[in-house]
Amino acid sequence: MSNSLPEPQKGTAISLSNISVCYRLPNEKVATLKETMIRLIQGKVRYNSFMALNDVSLVVKKGEIFGILGRNGAGKSTLLKVISRVLTPTQGRVWINGAVSPLLELGAGFHNELTGMENILLNATLLGHNRKEIKQKIPEILEFADIGDFIEAPLRTYSSGMIARLGFSVATAWRPDILILDEVLSVGDAAFTQKCTERMRSFRESGATVLLVSHSIDTVRSLCQRALLLEHGNILEIGSASEVSEKYAHLIFGK
Length: 255
Prior knowledge:
Elements: E1 12-26, H1 33-42, E2 47-61, E3 65-70, H2 76-83, E4 91-96, E5 100-103, H3 116-126, H4 131-145, H5 160-171, E6 178-182, H6 190-205, E7 209-213, H7 217-223, E8 226-231, E9 234-240, H8 241-253
């Protein structure tokens, strides 16, 4: 990645320049690991290239709730992983201004055999907070998650909605510079979704940036100022949330 590119303008939270991610996939199935290793040594394994993202450029401003729409396999999760620095792009430049708090998948960073309380301590530590900071935030986390006595039960006894409650509560207990949410609002009930919405709006008002992946057109229209539409790793549309939502509706419903 070139260091000669100019730094993004003031007020920018995220800047991506010509980002591409290429995966190499074997084009034939091999029955066993032993057979795979033999074929690798012999140079007989052939690969197909798959472009998960193709020349994606994007600027997201500070204090913006930015929506990402696209069908399954469009490249949404890959894009979020690049922005979260979980994945290094094959080419292009990533510039992030601030600390990123990612909630990329349900239960990410959680352990099924640990209790909810133990998972709070583990997850908050992974997010970079010390024990004193975590203990101060625990009452707020418990109140927001609202899972009652289950907080002392192993995570494997939780429903997907309860895991989402706990994950969102921990990730947003501290106001992040950049919050990344991947389909988190799709698993909660209406009351919890409203709480999440209010928290995201308060973050925006205080200058934080939120990236929101959702299949819900209504959610993107109501929460986001701008959005992008991905299809096969390419940006089909970028603009106001209403314009991009309309394009997405046309793509999936034909209207």
